[in-house]
Each structure stands twice: as structure tokens, then as C-alpha cells.
Amino acid sequence: MVSPSNASFINCASFLNMEALHQIDGEQSPCLDDFVSKLQTFHLEFDAYSPLGRLPRSFVREFGNLIDQYVVLRDPNLNEIEVRVVKRPDGLYFEEGWLELKKTYNIWFGGWVTITYVNPKLLAITLMTRWESEVKYPLHSPPLKLMLARVGNNHEMDSSSSTTFSSGCLYPKWFLRSYFKELTNYDVHSGILILPWYAFGQSAFAYVYSDLVLEDYTGARYQCNLQFGVDADGEFCCKVYGEWIDFCKAHHIQEGQRVRFAVTEPSSNYVLYVCVYPQIGLQTTLSYPLGDGSYLPLYVSQQYFIADY
């Protein structure tokens, strides 16, 4: 029997110290993580000849008032397809973008889609064929992005890397390397972020000029470029530019603000996770019924970030 005093579940562990987390959770964390994920998982049929995909009634009942009009479907290889959600008298349906699954995953004869609610703008998906075999997910670097190009009332697919959203279990639960920086006036207003090479970049990036994606705590992505040079002190450094200036505007970044940059791979990262401080955390207690009639408390931690409007 799990001791209630040791039971814990972190719903948004993106920027937490995982070493400290494991001291709290022990061996129960993976079990509870899986349990809560299953509570948010549903199944629906994919009809290759229907432009609509009907969301399960149980999903509509539990998440129908939360889901956004436009939702990104993300597979295990981080490929993303945006679909439009429409409300009809008999339920909620996926509409524009839904049939893109047919050619993307080669399910020409239909199949089954498993969706896991992550946040109002993102659903994690896995797919099975009618013959109960899992599909092959495309492997691209960077991952495939099929977003709806909204022009008036018409919606067409656009292969791009538009802003997308993620949270919860899809976000990295630990980082191999991170770097905290107090942003300078140059970082904020020049459109170029300076990161040290020896203290961070050398172990985080490949030494080539390349594309780089900044991903914030909401899952929004910003397309940038990575170059190398010398900073104002003559030290070798990494220079990140492009939509970094948009990131600063979106988060109302000011000089002197403390920001954490983190990566998940040992080297050659093309995604840089960014956390803007300060932040606050809230903890909610849920109760899971046990077979003997007692209840196991589940402590759900949620991280919130303060924007200076």
C-alpha cells in the first residue's frame, strides 16, 4: 500500500529540479503520472472518407467547455497537425485539417485515433490501423508542422512552424543542461540574445550556423537562427536572433529580468526551452479511491508565470 504522505504527482514539471522531485515522489510518481494521463485519454474512429471526426461524448462532457476552436494534434515524434473544432447539435467534431491524417500517416483505409488532452490548444495523439497495428510516425528534423492558414472563412493547410502549444506530460520532465541569465539592455532591445559559449553553448549546440526553436512554458514556439561570435567583453559567444525579439515582446521582457534557458539533449540541440521568472506555484489535492474504501491523496502542482502588462 502506498503511504499517503509520500504520494505526489507533478502535472507541470517542466522547470522543476527533478532530483528534488524524486526525493519527494519516490517510486510512486511514474504510476500516478500514468494514472492521470489515462484519465485524460479517449479514442475515436478515423473514417478515411469522412471530412469530420466526431469527438467522444465522454471527452465533450469533460473537456468540451475547455477545448479551443483550433487544436494542434501532436504525435510521439512531435509532428503537429492543426485542426478546427466545430460544435454541432449532436456534439463536437474535428473539421478542417482532419483528413490530413490520412496521407500523413498512410491510413487510407481508416483506423483509430487515441487523443490525450494536454491543454485547450493541444492534444497528444497515437494512431492504429484497422488491423490493430500502430502507424509509422514521420521522422523529421525539425518535426513536421501542418497549420491551418486562416484567410477569412477559408482554412487551408500550410506547411510551417507556426506557434504551437504544449504543456503537461509532453513537456520535458528534466533537462540535461540549463543556464540562468539576467538579461541586458542589449539582449532585450537589439533583437540578439547573447549566451556564453563555454558556460553553455559548447555543450548545448553543434558548432554550425543553424536554425533554433525557442519554446516557452506555454509551448509557444519562436523560430530563430544561431550564430557564433564575440560579445562586448571579447568572449566567444552564441548569438540567437530572429523571433527572439517577438519572444521579448510577447512576454514583456525588461532589462534585468531573470530567464532560464535549458536543453534536453547532450549536444546538437535545435530546441531551446525558455522559462521567464518570476513564477508562482499552486498545489491542488485530488482523491483517488482505493479498494478498501479509503482515498489516496494526489497532489497536483501547477506552475504560473507572471506577465508584466
Automatic annotation (TrEMBL):
One GO cellular component term of this record is: nucleus
Q: Which Gene3D superfamilies match?
A: DNA-binding pseudobarrel domain
Q: Which SUPFAM superfamilies match?
A: DNA-binding pseudobarrel domain
Q: Does the keyword Cell inner membrane apply?
A: no
| Matching InterPro entries | DNA-bd_pseudobarrel_sf (IPR015300), Plant_B3_domain (IPR050655)
Q: Which UniProt keywords apply?
A: DNA-binding, Nucleus, Transcription, Transcription regulation
Q: Which GO terms describe its molecular function?
A: DNA binding
| Keyword Nucleus found | yes
The compartments listed are: Nucleus
Q: What is this protein called?
A: TF-B3 domain-containing protein
